[in-house]
Amino acid sequence: MTDRTLHSSSRDLAEQAGAVLLELRARLRAEGVGPREMKRAGDRAAQESIAGGLTRLHPGDAVLSEEAPDDLRRLSRDRVWIVDPLDGTREFGEPPRDDWAVHVAVWERGELVAGTVALPARGVVHSTGPFAAGRPPTRRPGPLRLAVSRSRPNALVVDLSERLQAELVPMGSAGVKAMAVVDGTVDAYVHAGGQFEWDSAAPVAVARAHGLHTSRTDGSALRYNAPDPWLPDLVVCRPEVADLLLTTIAVLPDAGADRCLRR
User: Fold this and answer.
1) Which residue segments constitute the domains of the chain, with CATH numbers given?
2) Which Pfam families does its entry note (predicted)?
3) Is 13 exposed, middle or buried (0-12, 13-18, 19+ CB in 10 A)?
4) Cys staple from 114: which of 106, 159, 181, 230, with CB 3.0 to 4.6 Å?
5) Distance between CA atoms of 16 and 13, rounded to whole angstroms?
6) What are phi and psi of 175, to 5 degrees?
7) Cα dist from 48 to 86, 132, 149, whole Å
8) How far does CA 196 lie from the centroid of its chain?
9) Which sign does the torsion angle of CA 145, 146, 149, 152 carry?
10) How far apart, in whole angstroms, are the C-alpha atoms of residue 32 and residue 21?
């Protein structure tokens, strides 16, 4: 199978799930359904869309999904699809918020080889391969801008912003934050409160395809398809600010404080 097929499949799956979510959200909103049930319905519908698509397109591949049981069979497979069917369920359940995403990534023999982050409510899709720009847009002048959770900014990022006199830009899901680096809205997305592989696999694949730096907060490589899918921390940033961010993080007093937290 060619890499181009994997890039196209990841994009098609994410776009199809996004279309399902948009239709579902509009219908449930019109029916007066509350946020809790809207979020649950969104998770189910997006998972069914992606799972069904993978059964048709790549029936022999393993899957690691936030919304499906993990039987660990993926550990013996050469190719694994790592998906978050609805990244940002809170935002999805609060129409008309648009800062939620669909993640579809492909891991093959130790590496992320393809991925897509769809932002359905914005009509935007970011992908790897022939769909990627290959380098980030020109940086805007002014202080560094760091994407941060609108509801739970972690202490390390707050400390980092104070040390660097950076601007914090609140926004929703992990995919939205990472894609804000891709499109030049912010310069970096630093997270130290703990995530799972499905939170970052597709964003990291897309960020790399667009020429961005990706790593753990100590500068080490991000690893996927591990027996335990927990990933404590993440940096996605413009390459020219990577050294500054990593060296600053290393000297912060709480640099490792959030790394062992699990949600």
Assistant:
1) 3-131 (3.30.540.10), 145-251 (3.40.190.80)
2) Inositol_P
3) buried
4) 106
5) 5
6) -65, -40
7) 11, 27, 28
8) 10
9) negative
10) 16
Kindly state the DSSP code that residue 88 receives in the 8-state scheme.
Answer: -
Is 65 within 8 Å of 43 (Cβ atoms)?
no
- In angstroms, rounded to a whole number, what is the distance separating the alpha carbons of residues 95 and 255? 35
pTM, to two decimals: 0.94
The one-letter amino acid code at 97 reads R
Q: What is the DSSP letter of 208?
A: H
Q: What is the Cα–Cα distance from 94 to 103, expressed in whole angstroms?
A: 19
- DSSP letter assigned to residue 2: -
> Which amino acid makes up residue 119?
L
Per-residue pLDDT of the chain (263 residues; tens, 9 = 90+): 566 799 999 999 999 999 999 999 999 999 999 999 999 999 999 999 999 999 999 999 999 999 999 999 999 999 999 999 999 999 999 999 999 999 999 999 999 999 999 999 999 999 998 877 667 778 888 899 999 998 778 899 999 999 999 999 999 999 999 999 999 999 999 999 899 999 999 999 999 999 999 999 999 999 999 999 999 999 999 999 999 999 999 999 765 544 444 44
C-alpha closest to that of 231 among 48, 45, 84, 118? 84
If you ran DSSP here, which 8-state letter would residue 61 be given? -
Query: Which amino acid is residue 186, in one-letter code?
Result: V
Residue type, 203: P
Whole-number Å distance between alpha carbons of 141 and 131:
27
